[in-house]
């Protein structure tokens, strides 16, 4: 039995192709019912762990799930009893700590984990503190959380504050979160799509953590609070868990597109700018919703509505991240199959101009999107120095001239050559 996608030879009992991952025993040609990082989940799923922690989704998913649950419970209990410093600190650093532990646990970058993690997390943290302080000095309250922190409900929303919160902060904030991941993903050892996604998540949760610390600094050093515990529980959940996940997944989408498909990082391509626009729009929706919901008369209802709004945006982002990750993992398998088919482990591959998937040896059509290879621009021919050996065969797409020569060749001569 052969795989219909990469033509690899398979045992008769195979369910999935061991080379390209194609589902052999299903009519699901795009494998939408089997997520590449966790096959027992569909691609369209709201599973958080397998989305932002794909390398540990099969071996130890409960470890990270339990860690997040314990930190959430500790923060909420502290908020119930009015111990706001403990609640804010736990909520601000729970997800970053669990995520950094995940990176070390799966040994993602065994050669230099500390510099990479520190650069992605620390650089974003420093820039976030400086930016948030400036914003809060320009307009107070700069980023309102509820009506209890100074928002004047009698005057209604301010145009300037709305533009600051729903436009300037999302755009500048996303630019800050892109700096570290883009610098790291541009290095040859970190140009994989999964690396870009991970860098983006780290940067996003780092921004959320330090943003929360700066904005709640007065409450952090103020000790106990006698306000409604239900309000603080909702507030802690919103800013300590919903916000970092929204920012992390949004930034991860753009950074994954920067790493892109195929060999090396794609860089500042239209796909990256599309991912960046998606991230900015998600941030605009999140921060703008938080500001508008802050004018609801009841503070607790205000935060609950803002939390539900944030969870809605988070759900959309999770679905988008899973699609990006699934496509990247399937692409990596197809690239490997292309190398095995014709050019060897270190050979030069050629990629489809439309979907950037690798082309199989002597391919006339892209196996992923169906584009006719002959419609692509001809590859530049490198000059061969005198006395150098002839170039080795590669998976270069057949040009129109080459195809015409093959079509006009003498079949009898071919038969004699084969004999």
Automatic annotation (TrEMBL):
UniProt-listed Pfam families: PrsW-protease
GO molecular function: DNA binding; peptidase activity
Keywords for the protein's UniProt record, in alphabetical order: DNA-binding, Membrane, Transmembrane, Transmembrane helix
Transmembrane domains' residue ranges: 86-104, 116-138, 158-176, 197-217, 229-255, 276-295, 301-321
Keyword Cytoplasm included in the entry's annotation: no
Location of the region described as Disordered in the Swiss-Prot/TrEMBL record: 380-419
The protein's name in its UniProt record: Putative DNA-binding protein
Species the sequence originates in: Microlunatus phosphovorus (strain ATCC 700054 / DSM 10555 / JCM 9379 / NBRC 101784 / NCIMB 13414 / VKM Ac-1990 / NM-1)
Lineage: Bacteria, Bacillati, Actinomycetota, Actinomycetes, Propionibacteriales
